[in-house]
Amino acid sequence: MPATPARILIVDDEPDLRTLYELTLLREGHKVEAAGTVSEAMSLLKGHGFDLIITDMRLPDGLGLDILQHVTQTQRREKAVVITAYGSAESAVESLKAGAFDYLTKPVDLKQFRAVVSTALAAQAPPAVAAQERSTAPAPLAAERDPGSMTHPAGEAALHRLVGNSALMQNVRARIVKAARSMAPVLVRGESGTGKELVAKGVHACSHRSEGPFVAVNCGAIPEALLEAEFFGARKGSFTGATQDRPGFFQAAQGGTLFLDEIGELPLSMQAKLLRALQERKVRALGTTQEEAVDVRIVSATHRDLAAAVQQGTFRQDLYYRLNVIEILLPALRDRLEDLPALCDALLDKLATESGYPIPHLTPRQLRTLASLPLEGNVRELENLLQRAIALGDESKLQLDTSLADDPEVLAIDIPLTPSTTPEFPIVPPAPVRTSQVPASDTTLPADLSKWLDEQERQVLVKALEETNFNRTAAAAKLGLNLRQIRYRMARLNINAPGHDDDA
Question: Where is the PTM 4-aspartylphosphate found along the chain (predicted)?
Answer without folding.
Answer: 56
